[in-house]
Amino acid sequence: MKITDACVYPYPAGDSSIRRLALEAHALGYDSIIAAETPACEINDVAILSGMILTDISAKDVINRIKQNKESGVIVSVQARDNGFNRAVGGMNGIHILRGVHAVEKYAFDHVTAKIVADNGTAIDLDLSPLISGRGHTRQKAIHRYLDLMTLYRRYKFPLTISSSARSVLDMRTVREVSGLCSIIGMDTEDVEQALAGVARITAPKETAVKVIS
Amino acid sequence: MSVRPPTLREKRRYLLARIEPCGMPVDGKDLYYAIHESVTTLWGDVVTAAMQPAVISIEDGHAILRCRRGTERECAIALSTLFTCRDCQIVLRVIATSGTIESLRDRIKSMAHHLPKSTGDIPAETEECTFDSRAFQIVQCDGHKVDVIEKGFKNTHRLFLTTEDLEEK
Hints:
Helix content of chain B: 25-40%
Mean pLDDT of chain B: 88
Strand content of chain A: 15-25%
Number of helices of chain A: 9
Order of helices and strands of chain B: EHEEHEEEHEEEE
Oligomer: heterodimer
Mean pLDDT of chain A: 92
Shape of chain B: elongated
Largest interface: A-B, 27 and 26 residues
Helix content of chain A: 40-55%
Number of strands of chain B: 10
Shape of chain A: globular
Low-confidence stretches of chain B: none
Structural class of chain B: alpha+beta
Order of helices and strands of chain A: EHEEEHEHEHEHHEHHH
Number of strands of chain A: 8
Strand order of the largest sheet of chain B: 2-3-1-6
Largest sheet of chain A: 8 strands, mixed
Strand content of chain B: 25-35%
Structural class of chain A: alpha/beta
C-alpha cells in the first residue's frame, strides 16, 4: 500500500523545494506525494507524482485540457464548483480527483454526483488544510461538509484521497496526525488507510469489465 | 494547604513534541497561549477544562507538555492544528507520551546522540548561498536540510531547501 499526500505545492508556489518536501514526506511516513506542476521523479525513496490542478474553468475547457495531457501520466485534479459542473466533471474519463468539496455550497456534491464518481472511479479529495489552519466558521463548515461526504462515502464507496495542500514543510502532517484529524470527521483507521492509498487505487490500470478466459 | 495523597491526585500524562522549524526560539508562555487557543477552538471550553493543557518546559528544540490522563489523544489532535506562535509559523510534532517527565528528558538525551550535527554538509564559514539566482543566508542546516532567508531587509521569509538545491557561488 502506497501512502500518498494528494497535493503539495513546491517552490515557487510554496516556500519549500520539492526535494525538501520529499525529505519531509519520507520522515512523516509517506511513500509518494502529488506535486503541482512538477515533473514526475523519485527523491529519497519518495515517488513524486506530477499533478495538474484545474480551477475556475468551464467543463468544456476541462475536456480540452484532458485531451492535451492525455497519456502524459499527470494526475488531473479539478476544483469542485456547482452541482452541474461536479456532475459533468465527475463522469469524465481522465479526471482523477475532484478537489475542494469543503468549499462548495451544501448541495453541490449530492447523492447523484456521488454515484457518478463512484461509477467512474473518480476520487474525492479530503483537504486537511481547513481543519488545520481554519478557525471558527471556516472549520465548522469544512467539518460539516466532510461529515456529509462520509455519509455518501459509506453508501457509494467512491475512492477518497487525503491531501495537506502544503505550501511549506510546516504544513505537512504525519500519518498519525492525519489519522487523528480524520477521526474528527468520523473516519476510522480503515477509512484513513484506504484514503491514503486512494491515489494508488485510481492510478492503477482498470480491469476490464468482462474477463476473456478462452 | 496540605498536599493530597497520591491516590487522590489527578493523573497526568506528559507529551514530548519537537518544535519545527529547528532553531526557532519559542517562549514557553507564547507556546502555552498558542496551544490553549488550538485546543479551545477545536474542542471547546468543556474539553479544554478537562484536558488542562500546560507547557512544562522547552529543552533542546523540544517541548514537554502536560495534560490529564485519558485526554492525550485529543491533546495530540489539537496540537496538530497548531500552526503559529506569536506570528511565527511553527509546528509541533508529537514524538512520545509518558507518565513521567524524567523519561521524556531521557528520550530527548537519546535523540540528541542520534541527531546529525548541524551544518554537517556545509562548511561553517559558508553562510551565504544562491538559490533560483538569488542570494540567501543560511539560518539553519541540519543534515541535508537547509533553511535560508533571502539577503536584504525586505524579505525575511524562510525558505526550506536541501543541500542539493543550493547552487555554487
